[in-house]
């Protein structure tokens, strides 16, 4: 994985070069004086470096700065308010709801999406007819835009014109309006999240299953293990790294979720389906509250970086 | 990590080599489960497409079935409309520019990190990888102000440049890992023959890097084609809207006429579906392998 490798790239370089071909290394160093490395560095690095610094790193730093001001984005930020924006965030009930909802997405992913993906992956990996076809169909929602998926499901959930309304009609029941009810809206959204992303997780597990050493399963066979025993005692433990990766993607995806919410509910009804990013958009961007919105961004940044670091350090250090 | 391409497919449920086949009943259960899931995936899509052929009252009574009377004009009016093609065109221009710059800047920077040791190179690489850790939305307000001050609000570049900037971490990571795994004999031989870094990059590295160019290209194209939040914030004129924004506007305008909205959605996702079915192997491999490795 990227993180473990990049923390100490110097060491890997030195070991590989030094042990295998010390002579070649020497020759190359002599020649490389002729082919100076500076022109290529000066030509190849600046485009990425400048763009990245100006549009990713600086805005993040500015967000930290703006977050201490009350500012509408015009002129210069002058009205210093200290930590007030942060206090307002943590006192805002819509924000705590957003945090809960982001957590719910991760929980639903762990409890429903990942088991479903793993189950489908084991079935598809067992050379059945039509495996390719099912793989294709299950992956299809993942390539669709979140906005389109959200809009399609807004139609599905519609009580008057949609499929859920139609099903209720078949049974002679009152059509439900899940997206308009604050008790059910978030669960309806979880359904769409799973519909859209289970195929991606399934592909991760298919890849993981393929990398399992055949001989281990054969050994289990010789020892007389049943299919389920083989799965529980051999396959599943060997898929540990894939499961951890899958959970990691679920966390990252949950923290970014925005596009799908907008067509479905826009964060409503009464803020029951806000996520971190829809909260930032609805309370910071649309009202042009640059200070407050930046503070939300900083909180989101801290959460993302803390989770990424601690998750990789605690759960994925051996992967 | 897991490598999709190199390992042979293995049977997970049946024991490989043991000659033991799945029992017929197990197989039937498996197919029932798979088909059920496939139905749940496909029915929303198919009813969306069919709904676009209905009248509103037909949709109300019969959201699942075939249209009682096929309203070809729902689709016809959209397909001859300027806005549809304009939005598709906008999305395409933004995506192509994004892909091109992400590939070029990413490959160039990654080449330096893969082959040249220079003062602070490890720190600089880690600096780029910070970008992998948080989404573009975190700093969206300062980003907007910066783009506004650069005079790029309501231009394609106002969307393209941030997308490229946020793609560089992924692009550098994938390219660097690939470049470093190319056989080092190539590099030695080229140097002995007096080939400089630039020529080596252009004539040897790039021609050998087609698979990774495809992977990075697919990831950034799909990301840009589907992107919503950046165009939403950076663009004001409807004439520059890419299609995900277009759907939202269309829905706002025709919010009482679901059948038109459904036809519009269907037509906007049609290119994605067609391309996906044509290039499914590359797209699935690119999106999953790319995600795993970065």
UniProtKB/TrEMBL annotation, chain A:
Residues 99-311 form the ABC transmembrane type-1 domain. The chain crosses the membrane at residues 38-61, 99-120, 132-153, 185-207, 238-258, 290-311. Belongs to the binding-protein-dependent transport system permease family. It holds the Pfam family BPD_transp_1. InterPro entries: MetI-like, MetI-like_sf, UgpAE/MalFG_permease. This is Raffinose/stachyose/melibiose transport system permease protein. The keyword Transmembrane applies. It comes from the Bacteria. It is found in: Cell membrane. Keywords: Cell membrane, Membrane, Transmembrane, Transmembrane helix, Transport. PROSITE patterns: ABC_TM1. It is a multi-pass membrane protein.
UniProtKB/TrEMBL annotation, chain B:
The keyword Transmembrane applies. Residues 88-279 form the ABC transmembrane type-1 domain. Pfam families: BPD_transp_1 (PF00528). It is found in: Cell membrane. The chain crosses the membrane at residues 28-53, 92-116, 123-144, 156-175, 258-279. Its main location: membrane. It is a multi-pass membrane protein. InterPro entries: MetI-like, MetI-like_sf. The keyword Membrane applies. Keywords: Cell membrane, Membrane, Transmembrane, Transmembrane helix, Transport. CDD domains: TM_PBP2 (cd06261). Belongs to the binding-protein-dependent transport system permease family. This is Raffinose/stachyose/melibiose transport system permease protein. It comes from Neorhizobium huautlense.
